[in-house]
Amino acid sequence: MSIRKFLALTRAGIMESLHYRLGIAVTLFANLIYLVLVYFLWKAVYASSGVDVVNGMTFTDTMIYLILATALFNFLEMFVVWDMSRSIQSGKIILDLLKPMDFRTYTFWSYSGSHVVQFVLTFIPTFIVVMIVTGGAIPMGLNLLYFVVSTLLALIVNFGIEMLVATLCLYTESTWGINIVKETIVLLLSGASIPLAFFPEKVREVISYLPFRAVYDIPLSVLLGKAGSDSLEGLLKLWGLQLAWAVVLTVAGIIFWNISVKKITVNGG
Amino acid sequence: MECRGLKFYLSIYRKILIQDLKSKMSYRADFVISTIGMIMTNVAGFITFMILFHNFPTINGWDYYHMLFLYGFSLVALTPVQCFFDNNWNLRFMVQSGDFIKYCFRPINVFFYFMSEVFDVKGLGQLMFGLGTLVYAWYHIGVPVTFLTIMQALIFLFTASLFMIAIMNFAAATCFWIQGSGYVMVIMFRFKDFAKYPASIFSGIFKIIFTFVIPIAFVAYYPSLVLLSPDEVPLLSWLSPLIGLVFFFLSYKFWMLGVRKYDFTGS
Fold first, then answer.
1. What angle do CA B183, B77, B160 make, to 5 degrees?
2. Where are the alpha helices (DSSP H) in A77-174?
3. How many domains does chain B have?
4. Is residue B187 included in any domain, yes or no?
5. B55-106 pLDDT, tens per residue?
């Protein structure tokens, strides 16, 4: 019974996202231009270095990694922080808090529709283009299934980070500042701007335990069969890390929210 | 619309700017956090750059200091768009909510009035960061410091900034036609990250696209060649001020076309 009310939210989200079809087409088109930029930059970088493999990454690996990181970024991107601050300012948050559903659950499921749409309409087409351009360099097998599992875990970790940061909005009006700090840290330490394999050894060791890696690096490594994900033991280790962070961030987020929501001050509404 | 003197517009800009700064001062925490955020994006960009060079010592024949020069150059060139044209990011919300109509009722240029409303102080942090990088690289490469080179630097930095302003004007103005066009701006803003690499990495049709359609090659590469290789400056570098003005003018016309279209729907 309860799953039905969640799916109703998903459906509403899908319909809302489909309203912005042109925006989705633009996203897809932008991803393709981005693909071209990444292609030329890294081709030049690898050509200048004179070797084919750097830190276990070939040119093709790097390209697939970075393009799909961008596609994942479009797919995972949630505007929880923005929406939260806007609904605090307008007072709409009161209506959301009064809904007969836990606020966190409600937020998660109302974003699920846009995730579905973005996955089908931007991620999958980008994936197909990358596959064609690289001449089938993405291994096709069980790793695809593992990738989906890893992406779902990444989604939960990402939502955990978003909600923790969004809760901060109850204390300050500085949405832009908070959001840019979050985005910068996540993009840098998750490997979305430059693959984690290129980081200096010591730094990488520290980063590998942080939650950010669970958002982009782990799903992409699993897809490419890197970072030891080609053995079952290594795969379980990566999933374990994602799962652990998903649990920690969710619990921390719920506690932080429950404390903070009592302090909420809304002007108007 | 009648054309008024530069002096008139400067005095209005000053008045609006003071109001904007006053209202910003009332959110001091916001100012501090935003500034920290801005510094962090620059530091993160710099770290990415260092990691790239940690693995690859040269890129397409460009060594560390030359790349650093391009990087600093692009940061400085991106400052005007950040400081003076930041209100572009609000355009789509105002158009959607209908608040934009207020700009159409004033007896001054709509584009000017809209842009003058926000001055982004955070951009100054980026300017400092970029200037530091530029001076450091300048010193290490050994570009001579003469009146001529300083003037060239100023003119071509100004030129480079015109291109980025034009790109963002175009991107923002799409919201007059496309609903949910925020992503156009986000992606254009991400493309700027590629401005700090030498445009010689592109080939074929894409060289033309990234020079004349999405002109990121002009945000740092072509203008900075005037200083970096004074013996063999490509023609495009010398022409860049002119091309920059054309791009800016076209983006302004496109933006105003959007405004006129907005008047017609008149919601």
1. 90
2. 80-90, 93-98, 103-118, 124-133, 142-168
3. 1
4. yes
5. 777 777 788 888 888 888 888 888 888 888 888 888 877 787 777 777 777 7
User: Among B264, B250, B262, which residue's Cα sits nearest to residue B178?
Assistant: B262
* Among the listed residues A227, A221, A226, the one whose alpha carbon sits nearest the alpha carbon of residue A153: A221
For the question of an ipTM over 0.90, the answer is no
Strand partners, A58: A53
- Which secondary-structure segment (H or E) carries A53? strand A53-54
Rounded Cα gap, residues B237 and B151, in angstroms: 15
Q: Is B50 on the interface with A (CB under 8 A)?
A: no
Chain B hits for A54, Cβ within 8 Å:
55-56
B167 closest CA partner among B262, B82, B93: B82
Q: Are B145 and B101 in contact (CB under 8 A)?
A: no
Q: Map out the domains of chain A as residue ranges.
A: 2-261
pLDDT tier, A269 (very low <50, low <70, confident <90, very high otherwise): very low
H or E segment to which residue A57 belongs: strand A57-58
Whether B21 is in a domain gets the answer yes
| Residues A66-124: tens digit of each pLDDT | 888 887 887 777 777 777 777 777 777 777 777 777 777 777 777 777 788 778 877 88
User: Which residue in this structure is represented by tokens 């890696």?
Assistant: A213
Q: Dihedral through CA A246, CA A250, CA A253, CA A258, nearest 10?
A: 180
Interchain proximity B36–A181, CB inside 8 Å: yes
| Max CA distance (Å), chain B | 58
The letter for the amino acid at A251 is V
When CB atoms are compared, the residue of A40, A193, A198 closest to B206 is A40
Secondary structure class of B59 (helix, strand, coil): strand
The alpha-helical segments, DSSP class H, found in chain B are 6-25, 28-55, 64-77, 79-84, 88-97, 101-104, 110-116, 123-141, 147-173, 182-191, 205-208, 221-228, 235-265
- Residue A32, number of CB atoms within 10 A of its CB: 15
The answer to whether position B1 is within a domain reads no
Mind telling me how many Å the CA of B190 is from chain A's nearest CA? Answer: 9
Whether B24 is in a domain gets the answer yes
Which helix (H) or strand (E) segment holds residue A33: the answer is helix A21-49
Q: Which domain holds residue B109?
A: 6-265
> Which among B232, B198, B203 has a CA at the least distance from the CA of B218?
B198
- For A33-57, letters b (16+ CB in 10 Å) and e give bbbbbbbbbbbbbbeebeeeebeeb
CA torsion sign for A183, A184, A185, A187 is positive
What's the gap in Å between the CA of B239 and the closest CA on chain A? 24
Instruction: Give the SS3 label for residue A54.
Output: strand
DSSP letters spanning A152-213: HHHHHHHHHHHHHHHHHTTT-S-HHHHHHHHHHHHHHHTTSSS-GGGS-HHHHHHHTTSGGG
Concatenate the DSSP letters of all residues of B76-119 into one string.
Answer: HHTHHHHHHSTTHHHHHHHHHHTTTHHHHTSSS-HHHHHHHT--
